[in-house]
Fold:
Amino acid sequence: MSIKTATLNGVATIEIARPEKKNALTQAMYQAMADAIHAAQADGAVRALLLTGQPGIFTSGNDIEDFMQRPPQSEESAVFQFMKTLLGCDKPVIAAVTGAAIGIGTTMLLHCDFVYVSDEARLAMPFVGLGLVPEFASSLLVPELMGARRAAEKLLLGDPFTPEQAVECGIANAVLPAGEVVNHARRIAERFNTLPPGAVRDSKRLMHGPRRERVLQVISEEAQLFGQRLRSPEAMEAFQAFFQKRQPDFSRFS
Ligand code: COA
Structure:
């Protein structure tokens, strides 16, 4: 099983565990994560959720092969279910970024409440280089968080960035030594055992409330374009290049 779940001391942990494919996420894995968030949300004993990966890798993003074979067709697809469940979760979600967080690996962090990053991690949103567009409101939230200039480097050029830069531009709370990031995130999650859960829930709802409609609207707009781009010759070239372990060649496109 490539998604492991466990609940201990008020914390529901969702662990991405497919290291042989750098924790690339298939539709089945997204569905398992959506189900796990639903279950945590419904479990009165759970006060917070912890989202984590494997040593050296948080996730390399969408499984490109799965993506080509089973492109998400609509907002009913598993990847949408996962992201919408994450967005709708009114319990605190803490991410322990144990290593590289690529594509949706970084995008999902925008929808977590606390983000702790290993000092060995690298983050990147390389959608344009894959012939795609930003997703799940990153085209709205990234410029808002860090300003248009730095957002252009990350979203248009797809430049990878360091954990320190992630903190500096507001994506992450703190950088931790690789061996400590999960325990630190867990300690933060466990602090919710001593806080009143109703007040936490209402406060989280209030914090997200004013932006919620806009975020959902942008997600729909992005999804339409993302779906079209997924079938584009530019994306085909990028995906083939990835599997052929070569640089993509976009010179024939205008
Ligand atoms: N989808 C499918 N397979 C993936 C994958 C992905 N997103 N990321 C890694 N893999 C697979 C590789 O194909 C390889 O499989 P193989 O052993 O059968 O050849 C295996 O995982 C190991 O990956 P590899 O690239 O050899 O590891 P690395 O340590 O050199 O690099 C990454 C790690 C994460 C930097 C690199 O794999 C990468 O850039 N992945 C793609 C990231 C991406 O573009 N994500 C956005 C998707 S929308």
Q: What stands out?
A: Residues 10 and 45 are 6 Å apart (CA to CA). The radius of gyration is 18 Å. The mean pLDDT is 96.
